[in-house]
Every structure is written in C-alpha cells, then in structure tokens.
Amino acid sequence: MYFGAAYYPEHRDPVKWDYDLDLMAAAGVNALRVGEFAWTRFEPAEGQYEFSWMDGFAAQARARGIQLLMCPPLRTAPAWLVAKDRGILIIDAEGRQLEFGSRYTFCINHPLLREKGLALAARMAENYHGSPAILGWHLDNEYGDEPDCHCPVCLGKWHEWLKHRYTDIKTLNYSWGNVFWSLEYSSFDQVPTPRHSKTCFSPAHLLNWRRFRSDCTVEMVALHAAALRENGAKQPVTTNNQCLWNPRTDYYDMARHLDLCGTNYYPPYGSNCRVSAFGLATVRSYKNRNFHVHELRSGTHTIPGAAEATPAPGEVMRLTAHAVANGADGIFYFRWRQCPFGCEQSHGSVTGFDGQPTRIYKEVAETGNRLKAMAQHLEGTVVQSEIALLYDFQTRWTMESGIYWTGPSDLYVNRCRTLYSAMRSCGVNVDAVGRGGDFSHYRILVVPFATAIDESLAAKLVQFVEHGGTLVWHPLSGNKTVEACFYPDRLHPELARLFGVRIADFVTSAEETWELSWHGRHYATGWFLDLLQADSSEVQARYSKGWFADQPAVTERRTGHGRAIYVGSLPSAAFYDDFFASLLQDIGIMPLLGTRPPAAVEVTERTAPDGRKFVFVLNCSDTAQEITLPAPRKDLWSGATVVGIVPLPPHGVRVLAQDAAPQA
Q1: 3-state class of 101 per DSSP?
Q2: Do the beta carbons of residue 388 and residue 444 sit within 8 Å?
Q3: Cα separations (Å) of 70 from 141, 193, 236, 347, 419?
Q4: Cβ(659)–Cβ(612) under 8 Å?
Q5: CB-based contacts of 465: which residues, under 8 Å, 6+ apart?
Q6: In this structure, what are the phi and psi dihedrals at residue 52, rounded to the nearest 5 degrees?
Q7: Residue 543 — very low, low, confident or very high, per pLDDT cuts 50/70/90?
C-alpha cells in the first residue's frame, strides 16, 4: 500500500526539504510522485542533463523510508526546444498555433518532440533504474489531455492511418457513406482532419478521427515505456488517466503497455460525493486488477464561488478509504504543498503555502497511519463482483461527438452513473468491463449504451446469455455499425433475435416526460423511448402515459441458460432502485452485509487470495448513520470489535474483517 502525494522539489528551497519530509514521515507517507513538470531542470539546455538535484532529494526521502514514483516529462517541453522548431506546437481545429506558456501545447506526433522526450526518458532510466529510492515509473502526466492537433505532421499521419485501415479510397467512401453531400474522395490525401467548418462532419469521419487520435496517444505511451525498459528500468511502469473526464484515449488499449493503471480522482465534496464512484470501477477494469490514484483530491481549491470544493471534517479520510475500498493500492494526494506561484496556485493541497500543517494535514496523517496499521491485511486483496456495467470508448466517441444529432454530450456518463449507483445502493460490488473484456465472470451485464456493434461483439453478448448470464439492454444500443451507420432495423439482427423484439417506432422527449408501469408502480421515463413489438419475448412493463400507452416498455426473453432484458427507455433512478433490487434477489445475489444499507452508506468488499473478506462501510453524508451486524466483526479502522447496531459518525469509516469460510 503506497501512501503519499505529488511533490515538486524543484519548487522548494532545498533547505526546506528536510522539514517537508519529516512531516511526511510523521503522516505515514512512503511514496511521492515527482518530476512530471521538471524537463527544464532535468535538461536545462539541449543534451545537458542534470540529475544531481533529484539525486539529493531522493537520498533524503529514502532515509525516511519514502520512495519516489519517477515521472519522465514529455508534454511540457522547455522553451529551448520551441526555439529550435516552433512546428512542435499544436495547431488546433480553427487553424491557430498554440503558444508556449501553458502546458500540453505540443504535438505528440512531431519527430523533434519524440526524439528529445524519449532521449530524456532513456537518460533518466540509465540514471535511476538501479536505485532503491525509485518504486516505479510514471509516464509524463495525463496523456491524451492535450487538444487535437491538425498540423502537417498529423495530417500526413492521418492519411497513412486511413490507408492502413481501408486500403483503397473506394472502401472508405462506401464505409463512411460519403455519397451524402457529395463528399466522395478520389485519394486519401484529400481527406481532411475535422477542422472548423460550416456544419458537422459525418459521424463516421468523426469516429475514425477519434480512433486515430487514440492510436497516436497509445503509440506515444508505448514508445515512452519502451525508452525506459530498454535502458534498464525494471520497476513497474504506469501513468495517470483522467477517470471519466476527457475520453480521448481508449484506456483499455493503452493499458497493454503499462504494468499497472492509475488515475486522477477529483469527485465533489458534500452531498454529491458519490457521483464519480463509477470512475474507479472503470480504472479497475482496464487491466482487471488494482490500481493507483495518482492525484487524489485533498484540500479546498481557493476559488471564489466554487461549489462542492471544501471538505468537511472527516471527508478527506472518507474519500481516501473510498478509493482504497474500490481497488486502489496506491494513494497520492494532489498536492503536498500549496504552490504560491503558477497557474495552479489556487489548487487544494495537504499543507499551506509555507509548508506548515493544516487541518487537512492532520486528517491525512491520521488516515496514513491507520492505513499503515492495516496494510498487511489488505495485501493481495481485490474487488470481486458478480455484476458489471459495459463501459465502451467507441460508444462515448459516437455519442459525445459534439454535434446536435447525437444528443446531450453528457448523456452517456450520466446514465452510467445512474445505473451504477442504483446497483451499488443494493449493497453489492459492481465492476465495469470493456467490450474486449471477459463477460463470463459475471452473472449480470448491464449495457447503458453500446453503438459501433460488429459481428464479434454481438456474438459475444449472445454467448453470455446462452451460458447463463442476464443481459440488461437499453435503447440506442446495437443500432449502428462500426462505421457509425444505422442498421436498417435500428438493431443488429443477432441482437434482435436475442431479445425477441422489433423496434416498431420510437419517441424522443425532454428528460423524464413519460411514464412506465412495472409491478403495479408508475415511474418517470424519457429522453429516448423504443416502442417495442414483443415477437418472442414476455412483456414485463408497459408505458402508462401518452399516445403509445400500454405498448411494451420492458421485455424479457429466456434463452439457453440465461435471459435478455430490454429496457426500452431511460427511466428515473427510482425505477432502477426497485428494478435492480428485485433482479438481484431473483438471481440470488445477496448484499455484502446481508441487507440493503442506508442510502447514504457505501458498502464495498475486498477479498484476499485465502478467502478472507474485508468490508468497507463508509458514511457518505454529514449526518450520523448506522448499520446492524448480527455477528461480531473486528473493525480494522478503529481496532474495536463491533456487533448489533453499529454507529457511523458523519463521514465515518469502518473496515470489517471476516475470516475465510472453513474448507468443506
């Protein structure tokens, strides 16, 4: 269990390093993330490498049992590199060349940036690969967060990418439907990058541009990792993705080049604190293993008017336990010391501008020492789930294209959060899984949306149901090909047979305008409604309002050993609370503590290889809560044994240990 923060020794007078490190050691810190913005300090002039300052800091940290997660920088290049060739600066969609003076303004495809950035990584690996002060390597920072580049280098690379994908231009024209608006090309070098134009580019053009940009980032990550490994680095390689924010890169693809995945995590404080929990499940799914949080929210952002930015007492501790509960084996707060200069001078931190302890430091110190005491119990534990939600970058790229015709840009993520929260509120673990993941681990697979359906994914979903799984489907899923073109019947033929339905008609509405009736209760629904014809399926719910009242709203078809459920609209959270509670009970998936927890309480379980279980019970509110335990459990967080009615103070944490079940 790594516990620490992002720290910038280059921002601090070296005579203050000892003071900061002593505070860290007292707080249980054993790891620091360093170096991601320090290119000019590592290489102050071209080819002149300087590592002695970091060597000194590493030695002082190591003397206190603190190791470094070393970050070779790449996308915050120095001024001397820009002076050498301004062509490395990004050209945006409106044709403007971004100026030096901010971050992520550099084209990751440009040969000069690649040459110098990879050379720096190689020299850092040579210098630090054998050092016991280094726990691992963190590639740059927030790969993929830069604006799309439309420079000549990217344009040429785009044309080569298209040639590789389509071979000949006629295939591209047919696949994209370029006969529309007379957009047919006669050669690949005529295909523009989607820069600013009168109206929108075609969905196929935009989807493939997103695939191309993702491939560029993944290629750069692979090259960056190789520069380390080929020059002696044996420690694990990782980097931080953006959780649910800015999905420009397919993180499932990127994860192939990493030893472990990491993320930034900045959920809101206050009553809305649970809205981002789904993000941690996605990070866990990229390699189907535990992960690190390389930037965890800490103190208040000093921004006037900023909402949900100030942690109440106990909330930083609860947030940390929440990340660990959901699979984090490394916690790095952002940041250790508030910086008095630069763009992020208002960013929250653990200590103040002068490095002095704050109330946040005191809470972090208590949290760190509690985690240190229980780390041996959590060693090797993982989150195991019987339920998963399909998380798909291809679908996000299709639905979040920014054009009017695809609807609200936040619809995908908000619907994922609604579904995920409803399932977790039943008191069970829930995973995310990508289209390339193994569905067979799960008894229930929930699909919020899934476009870009090809034959292999359709067959995989059919197999999941035939082998005993329960598939929960929603509208706008299975409706398009991998080139973002509609199937004639708005549903892939294999999926139409699986669900035993035909989409007879459809209705759009503003949010939850309509109603459906399920098990004698009425629920609001809306956004998009499929009016289903149940050919070989049973009707489970009907619309109860509007000109289409009494038409099927939810159908179910049992086939093989499983069942396929089609929820024909996007109902309110109240529907899902009842629907999933009923479905889990029917299938036999029990709450982790035997009963549904209070609405404000998060319950998550980590399981050890020997079967021992550790249940995290977290109060996500500023009012006291309670749970009931029929048998005694050791609370590793407090050290007490608890039974019966167990109180949870505001933002309170309990970690309940359960021994492995006896062998039969």
Answers
A1: coil
A2: yes
A3: 11, 35, 11, 22, 37
A4: yes
A5: 471, 498, 559, 560, 562, 563, 564
A6: -65, -35
A7: very high
**CATH number of the domain encompassing residue 276:** 3.20.20.80
**Rg of the Cα atoms in the chain:** 26
Note whether 600 and 621 are within 8 A (CB).
yes
For the chain, percent helix, then strand, then coil, each to nearest 5? 35, 25, 45
> Mean pLDDT over residues 487-506, rounded?
96
Decide if pLDDT at 241 tops 80. yes
What is d(CA 606, CA 604) in angstroms, rounded to the nearest whole number?
A: 7
Supply 580's token pair. 């999933």
458 in Cβ contact with 478 (< 8 Å): yes
- pLDDT value of position 660: 59
Query: pLDDT tens for residues 33-59?
Result: 999 999 999 999 999 999 999 999 999
Residue 432, SS3?
strand
Can you give the residue range of the structural domain that contains 159? 151-192
Q: Position 254: which residue type? A: M
Q: Are residue 572 and residue 616 in the same domain, yes or no?
A: no
Q: Is 97 part of any domain?
A: yes
664: confidence class by pLDDT, cuts 50, 70, 90? very low
Same domain, 540 and 566: yes
Per DSSP, helices labelled H in 294-435 are 315-325, 359-378, 393-399, 411-424
pTM: 0.96
Question: Strand ranges (DSSP E) for 165-248?
Answer: 237-238, 240-241
**332, 435: one domain:** no
Please answer whether residues 385 and 431 qualify as being in contact, where contact means their C-beta atoms are separated by less than 8 angstroms: yes
Asked if the structure places residue 422 within a domain, the reply is: yes
Beta carbons within 8 Å of 170's beta carbon, 6+ residues apart = none
In this structure, what token pair is assigned to residue 363? 């809470």
- The per-type count for the chain, helices as H runs and strands as E runs, is 17, 26
- Asked whether 298 and 323 are in contact (CB, 8 A), the reply is no
Give CA–CA dist 616/101, Å, rounded.
44
